[in-house]
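Example record used in the benchmark description.
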Amino acid sequence: MQKIKTLYDQDYGLWLSQTIAHLRAARFGDLDLDNLLEELEALGRSERQQLRNRLNTLLEHLLKRLYVDLPNDFNGWERTIREQRKQLIWLLDDSPSLKSIWDETFNTAWQFAIKDVGKDYVQYKFPDKWPFSRDIDELLNRDFWEH
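Model output (structure tokens):
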């Protein structure tokens, strides 16, 4: 049996515009609820993934900046740290509820960051645990390499 293509399948942009128009006009009976719910669920997953990915990248570059003695690379690592911090601040400003999963996300991001950086820089010693505060404000603002 062949599936009938819906507007969602044929033209996502038009489907989105039409869905917004139906919502604004309170034409709830005209909504494609299955696809709308799927999109809303995906949006929530996407924000959580973005938090995890950006935090992972931030931790990787913080580890490199703190423990890898390659001064010629410091500037690049610090630029990446600033960019990830900026993106995380914006993400948390847009979705403050993500702060409720910060600790859990930090743990996951840390596990991958320490594993990946350790593989890339086997000649350097890295800590088993993050040696500084996990506080959101501190992690997003403090230059840990400046004592």
